[in-house]
Hints:
It is globular, with a radius of gyration of 27 Å. Strand 3, helix 3 and strand 4 form a beta-alpha-beta unit. The protein starts with 6 loop residues before the first strand and ends in a 5-residue tail after the last helix. By secondary structure, the protein is of the alpha/beta class. Helix 18 crosses helix 19. It is built from 19 helices and 16 strands. It has 4 domains: 7-123, Rossmann fold; 146-308, 3-Layer(aba) Sandwich (Rossmann fold); 314-388, Helicase, Ruva Protein, domain 3 (Orthogonal Bundle), CATH 1.10.8; 403-442, Arc Repressor Mutant, subunit A (Orthogonal Bundle).
Amino acid sequence: MDARSMRILVVDDQSSVRQLLKAVLEEDGHEIDTAPDGEKALEAVAAGYHDLVVMDIRMPGIDGVEALERMRASSPQTAVVMMTAYASVETAVRAMKLGAFDYVTKPIDIDEVRAVVARFIESSGPPDAVEEAPPKPSREIIGASETFREMLSVVHRVAESDASVLLLGESGTGKEVIAKEIHRAGPRARKPFVAINCSAIPEGLLESELFGHEKGAFTGAVRLKKGRFELANGGTVFLDEIGDMSRALQAKLLRFLQDHTLSRVGGGQDITVDVRVVAATNRDLERAVADGDFRQDLYFRLNVVTITIPPLRDRQEDVPLLVEHFLKLHAPERGKPKKMSPRAMRIAMNYDWPGNVRELENAVQRAVVLSRGETIFPEHLPAKVQATGGDPGAETLEVGKTIREVERDIIEKTLKQTDGNRTKASEILGISRRTLQNKIKEYKIDL
């Protein structure tokens, strides 16, 4: 069998290993994605189809063996080759029993890697013989507010149809999460979900990414490459930031949506592909149409059903649920569970979160890293969140109070801020824990 182009995910916590394998395997004509750890690898496999994963065993967080087990459960059609610097019969047998296609040893021998990839290609059958994937579990959808539940109800009704969907919403509201939910809840769930950010890929390369190219179509096109539409055949393609697509490419996308045929760059043959398209943008497409930046006929073709994802400021009651979710997601990286103090939570709920869910997740992850104990306090939140969070606990001193009264108020407020944590309160006040204990008794402060 002749060698063919594969989409391969390289997973290793060492950037030098990732760069080496990416360079070598791309030279062989393969499409290479990379991930620095097991968690990111699982996200990459869930987000799109990969023929093969080449993954290290020893990594921080989720190691290669656990990631292999979870990949085999959620994406059994994806083959996995393990890399190990601790070559032993036990390690190899365990990986193979868990479903690994093969394993290679470190330090990396490029010829050995190439040989394993070649064996996989030889054993995988004809290029179009892609095994049907089972439904992937939904990424958890977080939200209980009425606004969010109403939106989600529309999502699930739309998922049952095959209509094109246009997702509108500010940056960071979670448009890709909703696109995945439309795919997961619909009849195409057993087929691939393939996402592409139209603004993240140079215009000259975007056509090839979407529609593929023939060997020799341009300099560097050493092998035939299938585009994202072909890779998603039978499934769903998510086109993020569709408003940034050039008008020339808009015309080609319109043609594909009309007759479900495409031709690869450098090729003249029409190829029929069956995919559902979900598009998303944070731009005002109606204004873009009026300004001549976006084709009106394409807008109508994409806009069969429009779903607007509410910004986080319109569903602030969901903030505690999202915080709890992100604490569970990121706290294990630090080796211990975390919780947010009531005052920090009030500040988080009073902040507008202009960056929406993405900004909230970044803030929680930052707080997890900065907090040494189990509790996240206001000072662990970003300065702009603290400054504009509208915390009602910030008061000025009242003129006319005695020094004892002021001291009592300060101690009492500090203890409330730290949820009664006397060690933390004594650190903030700059006194010993014993002195604080004595002051609590002296002022009869009720905790």
